[in-house]
């Protein structure tokens, strides 16, 4: 069974002359154990697509099914719980809480989701891999953009979600870091059987894709991998 | 609380400023409350010390004990629950001391005011020219055995005892003999100004008198109600000002955090957590401010000269503090609304 499935999704913003159709009949399925990469230029609708996939935005038409049940069939609370437990969001704008140290960013998750988070050793491994293990006592303002982005990635992985949705997760990273992050996402898919979906215009990530898609003016097409 | 505490800890300057502001307002409110209560006490202490329920005055005295004149027929047939008293405003003088406005109250030996009079030192007045004086006289340099003259009269009175909490209309009381008060007053036929009773149902049957509940007489004390109203308004306004300050500060702090909150909402952190953080932050800041204000108030009370009319009543101050906490809760409502309406979509896509 697919981790989540998007069927015939259209997204329209605004009305009248301000009306823009951002997504056109988008169909997509994310499989466990697969890294799906959606490439597309800026403004093509990638973030909108990911927002709909994560249940934050209800599409103008079409359905999104997660774990056999559509978002429309769940209450707002249940969608919150689903995002907390099962979906790891790496947002394009990470907006880490400025008054929490890196360590506290994880503690906050512990306080809200009491069980099922990564055990300390695993977290430490992830942090080491991302090269931020020695930044635990730092506040976000003391970190570079790239470091913040990697903290945001670790934060999204910490609840051990089955689905990982990442929006431009490498925007602030140099090529060496891109390789590390790409490999990390790839391992999550292949070794840990996660369904990983990355939307990006960063071509450096294509090497890690199992499935490659293209988003162009709101139209999603599958590329031969 | 986790988020609230972390934020206060990180943003020490901001939080410190709000706490300082609340501490100052809280201190001002506490001091005003103390002053209001102190002045109220100085108006009513003597009456309160008698523990009476009803007060009979001349029907035409406009509920003013100072204006009331009663004849001997009007104070006849009193039971042991009643006492007659004669109140005269006087100016107390003694060589080498400042003049002091005071109230001479003549009381009868057989009646409960005389018998229940609590002395801090000395004894009760037994002879015509003996008086028991309020502690204010002692603070003014008088001692047991000191003499005092009243107005321009030649007669000297000897202070034979001191009593505490004997103030009426913000003036210290001199308790003397019933007949002496009549002499000082010099009004023919007038022997008393009031009959006070411990009985809730007491009414003086004599014509020309009217009997009131004690509270009615207190409300009519000159300036008393106006004073309480003024203080009440000042305290009320300060409460509203603190509400506005808390609301504005918290609103600004919260608005700055909305993008961060939007991300947390996108990550599935329930809005309840963020609401609790907002309310918790408000309460923590106000509690911290109140603790500082309370310490300042305690310090002030400790160094305050006895002559300053301030009284600190724990239940009353607690009620005021609780009022400020309610303001903190109310002040967090607008920011909480903003938190509840945070839209995770707003931060998606950068
Ligand atoms: N809430 C919205 N209202 C109106 N237009 C929007 C809104 N969100 C996104 N858009 C428009 O949709 C298009 C796609 O945006 P987005 O999904 O962020 O693209 P990408 O992530 O690929 O850069 C853009 O033209 C953007 O201006
Ligand atoms: Mg985008």
From TrEMBL, chain A:
Pfam families: ABC_tran. It is a peripheral membrane protein. This is Putative hemin import ATP-binding protein HrtA. Keywords: ATP-binding, Cell membrane, Membrane, Nucleotide-binding, Transport. It is found in: Cell membrane. Transmembrane segments: none annotated. The lineage of its organism: Bacteria, Bacillati, Bacillota, Bacilli, Lactobacillales. It comes from Lacticaseibacillus nasuensis JCM 17158. Part of the ABC transporter complex hrt involved in hemin import. Responsible for energy coupling to the transport system. Belongs to the ABC transporter superfamily. HrtA family. PANTHER family: HEMIN IMPORT ATP-BINDING PROTEIN HRTA-RELATED, IMPORT ATP-BINDING PROTEIN. GO terms for cellular component: plasma membrane. GO terms for molecular function: ATP binding; ATP hydrolysis activity; transmembrane transporter activity.
From TrEMBL, chain B:
InterPro entries: ABC-4/HrtB_transporter (IPR051125), ABC3_permease_C (IPR003838). This is Putative hemin transport system permease protein HrtB. Keywords: Cell membrane, Membrane, Transmembrane, Transmembrane helix, Transport. It is a multi-pass membrane protein. It is found in: Cell membrane. Residues 233-344 form the ABC3 transporter permease C-terminal domain. Belongs to the ABC-4 integral membrane protein family. HrtB subfamily. Part of the ABC transporter complex hrt involved in hemin import. Responsible for the translocation of the substrate across the membrane. It comes from the Bacteria. The complex is composed of two ATP-binding proteins (HrtA), two transmembrane proteins (HrtB) and a solute-binding protein. The chain crosses the membrane at residues 16-39, 229-253, 283-308, 314-334. GO terms for cellular component: plasma membrane.
